[in-house]
Amino acid sequence: MAKTVRSLVVLGDSTTVGVGDPVPGGWRGVGPLLAAALPHARYLNASVTGARVASVRYGQLPRVLPERPDAAVLLVGMNDALRSDFDPRRLHVDLDAVVGALVAAGSTVVTVRFHDHSRVFRLPGALGRALRARIAELSGVVDAVVRRHGVECVDLDLVEGAYSAGTWAVDRLHPSEAGHRLLAAAFAERLARAGCEVPGEVSPVCTGGIRVTPLHHVAWLVVKGIPWLWRRGGDLLPHAAAIVYRSWTGRPEPARHTTDPGLDRAGTGVVAASTTAPAGWRQRRS
Hints:
Helix content is 43%, strand content 10%. It is an alpha/beta fold and 286 residues long. Helix 2 crosses helix 7, helix 5 packs parallel to helix 6 and helix 6 packs across helix 8. The longest helix is centred in the C-terminal third of the chain and has 36 residues.
């Protein structure tokens, strides 16, 4: 018998906030579109623009756990991959804690592994290779956590239309309305596959929202696009330089190991998923 979803929570960054799908008064996006397919479920979206995995663990997770959600959607990690302090070990610990806590609360969890965003937001050669390498490390972390907890995962690289121009908003960083609908449909399919009852459907037909004009493209490029590229290019530049250096010298990529955060020092016990932020922790905006 299918599991009735009476509460749905969404955690993550600006994509799950709904950025890229503008409607009068704000953003819509993947969360409301998915919630509409689960008409009997209470809906809570705890997402925050600029969120990283640590901010989901310490900022968003404590908000949703008291709900004991039947279903939880988690989309986060790209902001970590774009930072100079990217640390796959720390990322693994935090993501494992988030997913483990949700599973322990009785949630059916669906998360994502990311696509090659350098095919969407075109970057110069070395920066593009640096981003692909980061995303590959991020995907390795996601894969390990998904295997450990047996949760569902949407592979964005395999979603039909993932690299189509119409799937992306004017900024080429967030999904358009069509892209948000693709995401919501993929999440709904995974929830159903995991045994949840999904009474409704996510229509692929766009209903409008706010029309994006060429002027929006120009305004975004000047006000947001160039400053964003400057900030994130600075974060990725040292990694890109290292890639170029290794290509010139023929030196191999240094080994990066992801430890299993579920084992204690003796390799026998499960580490508790604390939601108390360490001293000095704070969220940085993207």
